[in-house]
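User: For a teaching handout, I'd like to show students what a predicted protein-ligand complex looks like in token form. I'll give you the sequence and the SMILES for zinc ion. Please answer with just the structure.
Assistant: Understood, here is the input followed by the structure.
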Amino acid sequence: MKILFLLLISTILFAQTGLDELVNPKDLIPDIAIDLRYSTPNHSFLNIPTKGDIPLPKFYTCNETLVLLKMANALKLAQDYLRTVTSHNGKNYPKGIGIKIWDGYRPRAIQYLFFAIYPNPTYIADPASGSMHNRGGAVDVTLIDLATGEELAMPTKFDDFSAAASHSNNNLTQEVINNRDLLKYAMSTIANLNIYGSEWWHYNLSDASSYPLQDFQMK
Ligand SMILES: [Zn+2]
């Protein structure tokens, strides 16, 4: 009877954790940093011309992100590795290095908005087919010092839609190249995610496009 009961419970739990379920990566990785730039006016999104002092719009309703469970597991692998990196570029990181997420799941309605503002599919996926972000299968990330929360120097700011953000840009200091390489090692070699050649901050599941497009705002 007890076994039957446990079977029933596990069946119910399994049914609630489908492979396309979106989860909060903080639940799996408590020390991962979240700074959803689109939930604040602090984003350089596409250099939208603003009139006078009108602030840039907030595209997201809160500073919490979601990703596919498979992506959360990949991020955990990357963060578990980075936490062991206590010396890098000749500097000490007593608590190791960590990931900061700038963007994860993105409602499809926001994708339509982005594309209307900047219809350039190199940087903004056409919402008609949808972005891997709309499926929870992509993240935009950088590295931080886990002791201080300070970001490591990277080739460009987030959403710098220029050739400078490309992985092939080596017109950089060795320190910056090493930082980009460390992120790439953790995310692609350790966590088995795909890089995106045009944006050093973007990583996605290799099968991201097979997950459903979703369109709801975080609360
Ligand atoms: Zn991205």
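For the handout, you might add this sentence: The chain has one domain: 20-210.
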